[in-house]
Amino acid sequence: MSNKKDASKTKLFTASNIKCYCCGKMVPDEGFPVEIEGKKQLFCTKGCYNFSIEYKKFREGGKI
Amino acid sequence: MNAKKKNEIDIFTLEIIRSGLISLSREMGLAMSRTAYSVIFSEGYDFSCAIFDAKAEMVAQAEFNPVHLGAMAFAVEWCLKEIGIENLEPGDVVLHNDPFRGGTHITDFTIIMPVFDDKGNLVAIPANRAHLLDIGGKSPGGFGGDSTEVYQEGVTIPPVFIQKRGKPVTDIWKIILSNVRVPKPIYGDFQAMIGSLEIGKRRVHEYIEKYGVDTFQMYMEEIKNYSEKRIRSEIAKLPQGTYEAEDFLDDDGIKAQPIKLKVAVSVMGDTFVADFTGSDPQVEGPINATYGVAASQTYNAVFNLTDPYIPSNHGCFRAIKIIAPGGTIVNADHPAATFGGNVETSSRIVDVIMAAMSKVVPEKVAAGCYGTCHNCTGGGTDPRKNNDPFCWYLFREGGWGGRATKDGNDSLMDYVGNDMNQPIEVLENSYPWLLAKYELVNDCMGPGKFRGGMGTNYTIEFLNDDTRLNIITDKCNQAPFGLFGGLPAIPREECGHYNDIRVKMDKDSEFKHITEVFGAVSASKAASMRMPKGSTVELMTYGGGGYGNPLERDPKKVQWDVKNEKVSLKNAKIYYGVLLEPKTLEIDVAGTEKLRKEMLEGGKSIVK
To answer: Residue A56 domain-assigned?
Structure first.
């Protein structure tokens, strides 16, 4: 994590309920947005987005 | 890590730093326990300590509280993201307790102290999480069994500085200490937490001095990579596929209906996935788990299913994926009440994962545990100490499930907490109590080839006149399950409950359930019950489930159980088919063989 990020992200209000479309973890900042079926969905990271595709294939009987 | 750096890794140095950081986490914990004011710190060890790197990834932890340790990672990440790394300076301390920002429940505070090198770069973050006695809210000591919002459970403190450049931020201290019922011990416990972080900081500086910043950071990265390799190789040995199970909580304290947890565990190559899709929506009462709790307890289950000697850190977490849909019992949305999610729903999360995996790795799982922290809190004023206010938090141990080669543990804190017993002498000195009874409970354990462990009966008489008592427990109605022919725990004859809470309002009356005396909806969850002087509460935990057919249990083991008053003569016969001579307790070998044959062949076995 860089030491040189500027602008504090301190939130004035309570934690939001924005959760990752794949795992459910709360997305603390802008996350990783992906358009799915015409709607913007937030993933916590790109890795979580990639995992969601692999996992879907696995549960549908495909091989990873 | 690039190839050049990999070549620079010396395995001996790696092991020295890895073990050293675990030892440091233990040292931090010991410092906390020895300097704390409250009994839950000094005796109960309801805290955890760990070292994080500059990326907020856990590098080392000590063997404290599993539900804290997994979730702490999310809390440290939140602290850094909300406050901003660029705003951190040497001597700063950040505190937070928000269950929805990587917390567990609202009395669990996470405190971090960033450590910098001489150029001002963040190198490591010693952190701890601990359960404070009280953080306001409607119930003294928390755990209001009828809370419906986190606001009723206490004061939420988002990530804030409580120390800046080595100086206390007094405004924040004033806000916190004016919102708690027992500011003195809480201030002392916070100081114990900060003191333990000072030790963490001092030792990290010693590592930097000895190895240099770059080398120390390189080894911290490699420690995580090593754990990841180890756990992935263990996961890959598990049978590939998806395994499902369900388990239930008794109720949420508001409505008397069971709540379902569902899991589909997938072993996907060298990745372990716990998918809780299909679990019930979040509930009104205080047993909602946050994502941090769901993640912690999934990690906990995986560590139980794999090699327990793998150093647990962020490297392990990379191989474990949790899918916990928002708005459900395993990942509630703000502002749900969450006190019991961390201590009750968390137990169910481990149990349900174990139940799913029992189908493919029967040798690595155990039957159902008593499955609760059996939380009892409260407060009042102490007439022995000038009517000073007091709050307490008691968690009670119980019986664990039978295993493939051994009986379940007797009277041990459940796998969520790993906390220690708070000794009677210390409790009686700290609170106006008389411990009227503390004994093992016989005949409650699930019969099996390897039976469940025993629970305990812990009875407290209150010596003051203004105690308010809160309870959050579970598995009063749902039995700890048996496995592979083992039976569930045996319910109490008089009421059919397993774990149980009863009260006696004066010395001459009978014990009754809280539903009868206080009109509670639930037998296992209630808040702010007024207990007068001379009243008594009985906290009973139950046995674990059995593993394997009880008719296959060695008769000598049954005899030993009867001799030691763990199993009655009656139950030895009914459940195990073992006949003992009532006076000498010698085994009637021929009679036992005949009875067991009849029970098996004649369909009279209890086991179907």
So the answer is: yes
